[in-house]
Amino acid sequence: MVHYLLIVNHINLKMKRPVICITMGDPAGIGAEIIVKALSKKEIYRKSKPIAIGSKCVINDALKFIPSNLKLNVIKNTEEIKGEFGIIDFIDLDNIKLHEFNYGKVSTKAGQASLDYIYKGIDLAMKGLVDAVVTGPIHKEAIKAAGSPYAGHTEIFATYTKTKNYAMMLADENLRVIHVSTHVSLRQACDLVKKERVLTVIRLADKALKDLRIKNPKIGVSGLNPHAGEGELFGKEEIGEIIPAILQAKKENINVDGPVPPDTIFSKVIGGQYDIAVVMYHDQGHIPMKVTGFKYNKETNKWSTISGVNITVGLPIIRTSVDHGVAFGKAGEGRANEESMVEAIKMAIDFAKKKS
Questions:
Q1: What is the DSSP letter of 172?
Q2: Which domains does the chain have, with CATH numbers?
Q3: Residue range 214-233: mean pLDDT, rounded
Q4: Which of 55, 79, 337, 348 is the least buried, fewest Cβ under 10 Å from its Cβ?
């Protein structure tokens, strides 16, 4: 009887592993390589059933130049997933050949291929066939050449899931940031600092952290201007837009504080005073994230550490991503760092467990 229960529990544990879909990104970049390297880690298979979406010829090439002993299991649907360490379950869209692009070069064909992988991942998630989507890096110029009107992954996911209220969140260990605006000019970013948008992002931050099992998360809201405006000496956005949003959030019992001067808020997040910083524009959040997560070694002329995860919050599906680009300078050479991909997969697993 005890032996039977152990078998049943073992089966149940295997069944509970979330299915994590990983899109390859731009074939001319490092996406295939970092997928292979990430899926060489046994811990990912203990906690999930990962499947990759891309082109078989590209992933096979990565297996050769890394090199790697992992085997491909090409599948047509999620029912064929093996979920076994040593095997990459792979959906082959067969939409590009090796002779149709060059590593490290912008290509319309590669841009379109990367979009196809994304659309497939979204479709699987919306149908409930996978529990989360993890995206490899794409090239904005390449997808634009392919006819895409979107600035990046965030906008694509929001459009294809018909999501109105969403935000980009970045995370690396104790530092988390979430953006009021992202892929717009700095001039436009200032104009987008409005009470309703700031309030929406505060709400999204609160829910996202609670989904990550952080009880009563403490949210710090950054100012837009130096010294958070200094009482309108350096700008009026804090008093006119940001403070009213904070006051409304407090009425909703959200644990929020600010506006905090942008030059101190990130140290306070890292130090534990806040669990996340609501930032007003793209670089206000990305610069501190990459200062802490990216380490460059001038002796080796390489990035020794590339960490951090990009999460789109507010979607009806789970989407995480690496927090770096296609790295054309090292594509196809076998020296790409997979750290951010591993973290993105682990973050997707965490969100999927909460959702289940």
A1: E
A2: 1-163+315-356 (3.40.718.10), 166-307 (3.40.718.10)
A3: 90
A4: 79
